[in-house]
Amino acid sequence: MTSHRRHDRLGIHSIGEFHMTVPSLDEARRFYTAFGLDVQPDGERGLLIRTFGSPHVWGRLREGARKKFDWLTLHCFADDLDALRSRAIAAGVETIAPPSDANSDSDSDSNSSGFWIRNPDGVPLQIRPGVKTTLDEASHTSPPLPVDGTRCAPYRRVTQQVRPTRLSHIAFATASVPAQIDFCERVLGLRLSDRSGDGVAFIHAPHGGDHHLFAMAMSSGPALHHLSWDVPTVEEVGLGSMQMAAAGYKNGWGLGRHVLGSNYFYYVQDPWGSFSEFSATLDYIPASVDWVAQDHAPEDSMYLWGPDLPPIFFANSEHGA
Prior knowledge:
With about 325 residues, the protein is an alpha/beta fold. The protein has a single domain, classed as 2,3-Dihydroxybiphenyl 1,2-Dioxygenase, domain 1 (Roll). The longest helix is centred in the C-terminal third of the chain and has 13 residues. It is globular and about 65 Å long. The termini are far apart. The relative contact order is 0.16.
């Protein structure tokens, strides 16, 4: 909805789709299906990840020797494309040819559109016109509160599978959080929401969206840390954790609540060492708001309440600990 666009800000507006290599497509199908996502074949080459009820493809998976986050497509308004390309070049960022695998995907016309660059960690990014997948406005809900004299909690026996509604944000491990902040601001037109020194940063889109489209955490090198999927309330976060445990995926962190972003969370570790997050009621930053970023103490950078952080949460799933 262009009515929510900030014409005084040039920047990408949302995530298009991610591309990732995993060692086993069969295991990927089991994991993401258990998580509540719509997983379908992508021809004979891989898998598509959607949320139920939406045609939008959030992710494409291919099989390879090891897990690797390959590239990310970002969407912009069509009339901003040339200005974004010019700004990237003026910032000293070289445009690159699409990755070879991109040209062999079933939608190669889309993969060759727009322009391609690399972020400071060398990860290819495609900037192209596309649908705005960030919300134009938030509609937060909460579980029903008790009414005197009646039962409030639903029956467990009729509980349905938790199914996320959209990909909210992506968190990356990076060799340099400051370099990523600078790149996101100067090249992509994103804006810093909050940070904790050089350890972690949260970055939002300028045309209305969640508190963070990206999170960046200091590590030994670039890697996907987690994919965060939105669910309506903390109830679904808790039910999602049970859903994954029942499917055999018991390593994770939560249930808890973050300080920066304010969302309730449960992270479940995927078969390759990264995570998928059930996330509810993340702070929202409208296009009309000039959010003031702050640098927070370490104790506020991770969580308000929840279990102690497990060591697996800090491991780098693509470049060692």
